[in-house]
Amino acid sequence: MKPLNSVVAACPPSGIRRFFDIASEMEDVISLGVGEPDFATPWRVTEAGIYALEHGYTTYTSNAGLPRLRELICADLAARYGAGYDPGTECLITTGVSEGLDLVLRVLLNPGDEVIVPEPCYVAYEPCVAFAGGTPVRVPTRWEDGFAVDPDVVAAAITPRTKAIVIGSPANPTGAVQPRAALEGLVRLAEQHDLYLVSDEIYGRLTYSGGHTCLGALPGARERTVILGGFSKSHAMTGWRVGWVCAPAAVAELAVRVHQYTMLCAPHVSQLAAVEALSSPGDDVDAMVADYDRRRRVFVKGLRETGLECPEPEGAFYAFPSIRSSGLDSETFAERLLYAEHVAVVPGSVFGPSGEGHVRCSYATALPLLEEALMRIDRFLRSL
Questions:
Q1: PANTHER family annotated for this entry (predicted)?
Q2: Which of 58, 76, 103, 114 is the most buried (most CB within 10 A)?
Q3: What residues in the chain have per-residue pLDDT under 50?
């Protein structure tokens, strides 16, 4: 048989899934790994979806998505962060943020273009760059610096082939929120070297100690910045599969073109549910964020009491403790913890070399389970 696509074949399976495939075969496992809210979708949003189904809203929408939803997204960005995008020409509704990332990279990149990816980072960034014909270039961040991106380190990685920088803030897996000064530094680099900025802001509503900085709202950023967002994390709508892209018109137009030949449109029912999510006050989101904050404080304090150093996560719903004191590498730590105590975490190494020596723990889990997980982790560490 002729060989299959070499780029796809060279891409390893997600390092996250392996541990949860093992965990799914075990009993009494506490999973701290999957990045998914444990809340149900707010009822008013679900009701909007039910209404849509009952009244026959099961057709295609326009490729770019429902105009009303695009209007609400752009209005929310403007009111919340001061970012101005036109809903008619600069906004696209996607089937989750993952599709948005794929679309944008396919539009931005030509074969051989380089994309700078600060790591540790979400596991999809590098494969999506490669699938689009680009070359991911890793730039390390340090937990001693709160995983803040250093513009000088990024500058040293820029070559004549560099086309874009991809960044997530608040970040998966670290929970880090990039300081405004670091983001401003990236904008200056993008201006100096004529680069695009791709900003994954899916966790933008989930911040605790300070507000979220929208990259597209910074001076000089708008004409070269693509913002990715959605409803999965903030509104507990992972299974509805609805996200969005806001980008300069030329980028958005081509993203719609790829979208219309591949996904065609995001689900009509899901878009109407998202309209409801943005049409009403955000009390549901605020309540979920407050609950995550309470869990965050309990869980981080508990990790530190076990002897694990843990940076304070300022956003998302992940803790990223150092497990160096255990003497184990991150994959061995995660595997032994799973088999010994039935607690599933993700090795930090799957998120890039800078993640080694850490594990990712999601605290989007009921507080009693978090407390039980802490007891099991403590027992595991004492057994080493």
A1: ASPARTATE AMINOTRANSFERASE, ASPARTATE AMINOTRANSFERASE-RELATED
A2: 103
A3: none
Q: How far, in Å, are 5, 82, 216, 252, 262 from residue 107 at the CA level?
A: 20, 26, 18, 9, 13
CA geometry: angle 180, 183, 187, nearest 5 deg: 135
pLDDT confidence of residue 280: 81
Using CB atoms within 10 A of its CB, is residue 382 exposed (0-12), middle (13-18) or buried (19+)?
Answer: exposed
- How much is the pLDDT for 22? 74
Separation of alpha carbons 209 and 292, rounded Å? 12
Task: Write out pLDDT tens, residues 320-360.
Answer: 999 999 999 999 999 999 999 999 999 999 999 999 999 99
Helix (H, G, I), strand (E, B) or coil at 246: strand
**AA identity, residue 127:** P
SS3 23: helix
How many residues belong to the chain? 384
Task: Please state, in angstroms and rounded to a whole number, the distance separating the CA atoms of residues 142 and 118.
Answer: 10
Residue with tokens 């009993």: 27
Strands of the sheet containing 359-362, edge to edge, are 318-319, 359-362, 346-347
pLDDT at 179: 95
pLDDT value, residue 35: 83
